[in-house]
Write a structure and sequence with these properties.
Layout (H helix, E strand, L loop, with lengths): L1 H14 L9 H8 L9 E2 L46 E2 L5 H27 L5 H18 L1 H8 L14 H13 L6 H12 L4 H31 L1 H5 L1 H20 L2 H7 L6 H8 L2 H8 L34 E2 L16 E7 L4 H17 L4 E7 L9 H11 L5 E3 L4 H5 L7 E5 L5 E6 L4 H15 L24 E2 L19 E3 L11 E9 L4 E3 L3 E26 L2 E32 L4 E7 L1
Parallel strand pairs: 4-5, 5-6
Antiparallel strand pairs: 1-2, 3-6, 4-7, 7-8, 9-15, 10-11, 11-12, 11-13, 12-15, 13-14, 13-15
Helix pairs in contact: 1-8, 1-12, 2-3, 2-8, 2-10, 3-6, 3-7, 3-8, 4-5, 4-6, 4-10, 7-8
């Protein structure tokens, strides 16, 4: 059990510095510095009344006697007056908000991750009720920082608690509770084990120890960040002089964060960030010791799968593919009918375990889209198994909306009870399992990365299934010797585009663009005419043109809609492409040898351009 606790502690530490928790960090930082009136400094000669209250006015004694001074009246809900030290000075109450915020976050995250599903099911509440409560708390705390009367109302429930100053930290603790309900960290094997156990109500002593140690590990970096915010507020004179303004900024930021979470803006930002902790997470949470400890929390079903190695360099035999069982429904199939793996014999099948709010899963979707477009005709079939981390991800409408936003078009099985997840002994979001034409699992990859290797395995399995199959060129960037100096894949996305020059992009509405006067450098692109720059694609308007200087044997572009595209290479029109229907990959240029060229595209109005790839 000690080893399990250590694994949980290290897993929590890694999670708390991962890119997935970046949205909550500004709130934690500012919340730590938005305490009460005291700044923690000694005030020589101060009275024992409320801070800055001053002496009370004199009143007449009985029968016209001498005036008597009285201490100012105390509000029962007000914090205890600071006590004088032996020298007669008074130390203002210490700002404990950093501890209260982190304590609330850890308590709510740990409690509701383990028991949230059980409570919601027992009370018959909507699956996403906890998310709504978290968003509501975040907005209320933000309003409390901006409007003092609101804060006093929020602190009322804590006013009768006898501990000194605890009532003033009530709103900070409530803020932490709200953040804990909205906290969606990157999911590794440790968090997967906790959430799976919580989803099933299978709470053992080992799971409780793992959860508590993970929560403590998560709390340490967050507390350091909150204490840093408090220290800045105490030490920097500008913060003390503008305490009121700081509280308004912090409150506004919390409301903005709530709106960003409600409309999924934070997830779009996180998808653009690299998962810089994945390597360390894999070494710790997926080490031999961790596997042994975490696998002990499950039964011995389908043990053959554990004999194979994550991301192996060659295809192996990992046992017969377990069935897709316990599925609550299907998406993206005719009539939403189920898919039986036995019906896919003769095909190569990729099983993708994912969940729509997982940032790691979202970043993997474009690679799956590339593979489906490139290899569907050659016999590849993709099935997404949506295994939720949190209760709100069980709601079908939420999954439908998330899949649509991400562009998931392949069949999706709703594995709400995580039955299929268990069948595959899975531990990660995302995870990919490759099944050959005979129904045997031959390869699996946990987490992000190694996309070129996974694509290589797909191609090998397709050739084994049909030695005569004609495969297109690989979609990856590092699949052959031509990758050196080759122009990389480029997304036409207002958040993921790179190498763009020219008129600044305007998000999500039509705008006029102009090519720069100077020649485009290598691997740079520009726009001319009218375009609408969105997250998933750019939409052509009147007189839309696009220029790109590239180096490769061929250039390809994913296009959708109905219309024509004229391809101009180094000033000479080379072909006209008819585009029709849903997004598909179109070949723009095709040369025997790599070359550097200026590509210009002239697109009919209404066409959608998604991503360039180069071979």
């Amino acid at each position: 059990m000690l080893t399990l606790a250590l694994i949980g502690l290290l897993g929590g530490l890694i999670t708390a510095v991962s890119p997935c928790i970046l949205p909550v960090l500004p709130v934690v930082f500012l919340a730590g510095g938005t305490g009460g009136k005291g700044d923690g400094r000694t005030k020589p000669g101060a009275t024992t009344g409320a801070p800055d209250a001053g002496p009370a006015p004199p009143r007449r004694g009985a029968a016209g006697g001498p005036a008597v001074r009285t201490a100012p009246a105390q509000d029962p809900a007000a914090p205890e007056a600071p006590a004088p030290d032996p020298a007669g000075a008074v130390r203002a109450p210490r700002n404990r908000r950093p501890y209260a915020v982190v304590a609330g976050l850890v308590v709510s995250f740990a409690f509701f991750t383990l028991l949230g599903v059980t409570i919601i099911s027992a009370l018959g509440l909507p699956q996403d009720i906890l998310r709504y409560i978290g968003l509501g708390l975040l907005v209320l705390i933000g309003l409390g920082l901006i409007l003092p009367p609101v804060e006093r109302v929020l602190e009322k429930p804590f006013a009768r608690i006898p501990q000194r100053q605890v009532n003033k930290e009530g709103s900070a603790f409530a803020l932490g509770l709200g953040l804990g309900l909205l906290y969606v960290p990157c999911a590794g094997p440790v968090l997967a084990a906790i959430t799976v156990a919580g989803a099933r109500g299978e709470i053992s002593a080992d799971i409780v120890v793992l959860t508590l140690s993970f929560a403590v590990g998560t709390a340490v970096p967050l507390l350091a960040f909150a204490l840093a915010g408090r220290r800045v507020a105490e030490r920097v004179a500008a913060f003390r002089r503008r305490a009121r303004g700081l509280r308004i900024v912090a409150g506004s930021l919390m409301i903005v964060l709530a709106l960003g979470l409600a409309f999924d803006v934070t997830a779009a930002i996180q998808r653009t960030l690299p998962d810089y902790t994945s390597g360390v997470q894999g070494k710790i949470e997926d080490s031999d010791a961790a596997r042994q400890q975490l696998s002990g929390l499950y039964d011995d079903s389908n043990k053959e799968l554990s004999r194979c190695e994550d991301g192996a360099d060659e295809l192996r035999a990992c046992g017969q593919a377990p069935p897709l069982e316990g599925i609550d429904g299907w998406l993206n199939t005719p009539g939403n009918r189920p898919v039986d793996l036995r019906s896919l014999r003769g095909k190569v099948t990729l099983i993708d375990f994912w969940t729509y709010s997982c940032i790691n899963c979202q970043r993997a979707v474009p690679h799956l889209q590339d593979w489906e477009r490139a290899y569907e005709d050659a016999g590849l079939r993709i099935i997404g198994v949506h295994s939720p981390e949190f209760a709100f991800e069980k709601k079908r409408d939420n999954v439908v909306s998330g899949a649509r936003k991400l562009g998931v078009t392949w069949p999706v099985a709703l594995d709400n009870d995580l039955t299929t997840w268990d069948n595959y002994r899975n531990r990660f979001w995302p995870a990919k399992y490759l099944i050959d034409a005979e129904g045997t699992v031959r390869y699996f990859k946990f987490g992000e990365g190694d996309y070129d290797k996974t694509e290589k395995m797909i191609r090998e399995l397709l050739r084994q299934a049909d030695p005569t199959v004609a495969l297109p060129e690989p979609t990856g960037r590092a699949m052959d010797d031509l990758t050196t100096g080759r122009t990389p894949e480029t997304y036409l996305s207002n958040l993921r585009i790179r190498g763009y020059v020219g008129t600044p992009l305007v998000d999500d509405k039509p705008a006029a663009y102009r090519f720069p006067r100077e020649p485009l450098p290598l691997n740079k692109l520009s726009l001319d005419g009218t375009w609408t720059a969105g997250y998933e694609h750019f939409t052509a308007g009147p007189d839309a043109r696009l220029a790109f200087t590239y180096r490769a044997k061929n250039a390809n572009l994913v296009l959708a809609g109905t219309g024509k595209v004229t391809v101009v290479v180094d000033g000479k029109a080379t072909r006209t492409i008819d585009v029709s229907g849903s997004p598909a990959l179109y070949r723009l240029t095709d040369d025997k040898d790599p070359r550097t060229a200026r590509l210009e595209l002239r697109l009919d109005e209404g066409l959608e351009a998604y991503a360039f790839t180069f071979g």
